[in-house]
């Protein structure tokens, strides 16, 4: 008696959830960046209020957004194993832990995203530029935020006017990069979801050869 071949599980619903949550995050990032650039030039009470509201909205949105994205990422990784079992450089568990373990979280999620992309496209020539661009802007925003915390410590009242201006400019730059990364993340989510959906249709060849992306 033979067992049933593993089937792909739809990631469409999760893709919609990720997109719906990332939309407000993008708005919060852009509002925060705009307010930050403005405050770095001239202090205005309404801009400071707007910046604070954007930061609070961002904080409330991040946990559910991260949770939805991680569930989607896990789902498409499992699907990718069905499509191309030998296309993966890391074990499945790193699809979750790779985002949280220090140092490796700058590389493992990106490498796994490329593996998922390769498995989804099979032998079709589809550029992974969106994966590279998404990870570059996401990593840039994290690096700028980390540098700001290290280079300019203290609260607003403790920093000199020059340091406060630089602090606000760095925050605005990081918010802008993160907004771009979020837009690219939505593109990445839907392209992977669409590729897997196409490969999972009846009659589609799930074990088609693929050309790895470096």
Please outline the helices and strands.
Layout: H1 12-39, H2 45-83, H3 94-97, H4 108-121, H5 129-151, H6 161-199
The coarse overall form would be: elongated
Assembly of the depicted chains: single chain
Content of β-strand: under 5%
Tally of separate domains? 1
Q: How do the SSEs run, as a string of H and E? A: HHHHHH
End-to-end gap: 40 Å
How many separate helices?
A: 6
Radius of gyration: 20 Å
Give your account of this protein's structure:
The chain has 214 residues and is an all-alpha fold. It has one domain (12-199). It has six helices and no strands. The chain has helices spanning 12-39, 45-83, 94-97, 108-121, 129-151, 161-199. The radius of gyration is 20 Å and the shape is elongated. Mean pLDDT is 85; it is low at 205-214.
């Amino acid at each position: 008696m033979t067992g049933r071949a593993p089937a792909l599980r739809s990631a469409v619903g999760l893709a919609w959830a990720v997109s719906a949550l990332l939309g407000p995050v993008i708005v919060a990032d852009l509002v925060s960046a705009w307010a930050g650039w403005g405050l770095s030039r001239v202090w205005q009470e309404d801009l400071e209020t707007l910046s604070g509201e954007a930061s609070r909205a961002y904080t409330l949105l991040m946990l559910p957004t991260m949770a939805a994205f991680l569930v989607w990422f896990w789902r498409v990784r499992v699907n990718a194993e069905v499509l191309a079992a030998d296309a993966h450089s890391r074990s499945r568990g790193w699809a979750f832990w790779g985002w949280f373990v220090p140092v490796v979280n700058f590389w493992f999620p990106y490498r796994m995203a490329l593996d998922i992309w390769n498995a989804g496209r099979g032998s079709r020539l589809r550029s992974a530029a969106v994966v590279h661009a998404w990870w570059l802007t996401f990593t840039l925003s994290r690096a700028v935020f980390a540098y700001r915390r290290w280079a300019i410590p203290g609260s607003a009242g403790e920093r000199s006017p020059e340091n406060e201006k630089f602090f606000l400019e760095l925050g605005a730059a990081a918010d802008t990069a993160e907004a771009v990364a979020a837009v690219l993340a939505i593109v990445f989510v839907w392209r992977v979801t669409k590729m897997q959906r196409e490969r999972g249709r009846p009659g589609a060849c799930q074990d088609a050869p693929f050309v790895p992306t470096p």
